[in-house]
């Protein structure tokens, strides 16, 4: 598969901008228990995890030996994210009644 380096660098810059925005959102949240903080913290971790992937795709680093572990970690994190969203949404619906 051919990698278009300028496109990957554009993706990397977008991820870095998103990371800055998520960190700003987390810092502006009133409390750690707020949905805004929790979502921003999770999305910050997600953005940070994209940086090595982009660097691997353009050949700066080689993650071939740990790619399976990365895929498993990604799967676990997406399941936890789904549980988090479901829990927070169900609390919102229950409190609204």
What can be said about this structure in brief?
This protein has 97 residues and is mainly alpha-helical. It is 79% helix and 0% strand.
In terms of topology, how is this protein built?
Elements lengths: L4 H24 L6 H23 L9 H30 L1
The topology string of helices and strands comes to HHH
Report Rg.
17 Å
- Low-confidence spans: pLDDT under 50, at least 5 residues? none
Mean pLDDT: 92
The count of helical stretches stands at 3
Could you tell me the strand content as a percent range?
A: under 5%
- Report the strand count: 0
Describe this structure in words.
The chain has 97 residues and is mostly helical. It has one domain. Helix content is 79%, strand content 0%. Helix 1 runs antiparallel to helix 2 (35-57). It starts with a helix and ends with a helix.
